[in-house]
Write a structure and sequence with these properties.
Length: about 150
């Protein structure tokens, strides 16, 4: 695969990120929701670019001493090529710099999303619970996963 660039998301990326969202998620975030996260000082947003085209993005947000992975989305054409891992790794690296007191990163993932679950398993996340009927379109349970930053290098 060609060279993918990971960088902080900016206002200029909002349209491209929204197009990605609308094509990947049955319940996409709106442009205003994306803008809210971009302006939230507790959020870290990264984009993956290929030839100046957004092919992925991530949003993580901290509340007190816990950070939550709000979204990781990758264009289906580029999945299983390490783009999600790059986005997650770069976001957590920045998190460690900006908020060294954060101990845990949590997330929910659709029970049927085996590729994402594998990414999280391989990144050191552990399954800690389940949210019944957490997702809609279609209705599905969400696995709760957590990364303990004190035992993961990086």
């Amino acid at each position: 695969m060609e060279k993918v660039t990971i960088r902080d998301m900016s206002d200029h990326d909002l349209d491209g990120v929204y197009l990605l969202e609308a094509g990947c998620d049955p319940v996409p975030w709106s442009v205003s929701a994306l803008k809210y996260e971009l302006e939230n000082k507790e959020s870290i947003l990264k984009v993956a670019l290929l030839d100046d085209t957004v092919i992925g993005y991530t949003c993580i947000r901290t509340l007190l001493d816990v950070t939550h992975v709000m979204k990781i989305s990758v264009n289906p054409e580029y999945r299983r090529n390490g783009v999600g891992r790059l986005l997650l790794t770069e976001s957590i690296k920045l998190l460690r710099t900006l908020k060294p007191g954060v101990k845990y990163v949590t997330l929910e993932v659709r029970e049927s999303n085996y590729a994402a679950i594998t990414l999280y398993d391989n990144s050191g996340f552990k399954r800690t619970g389940k949210r019944i009927n957490y997702y809609r379109n279609p209705v599905e349970d969400g696995l709760i996963m957590q990364l303990d930053l004190s035992i993961v290098s990086g």
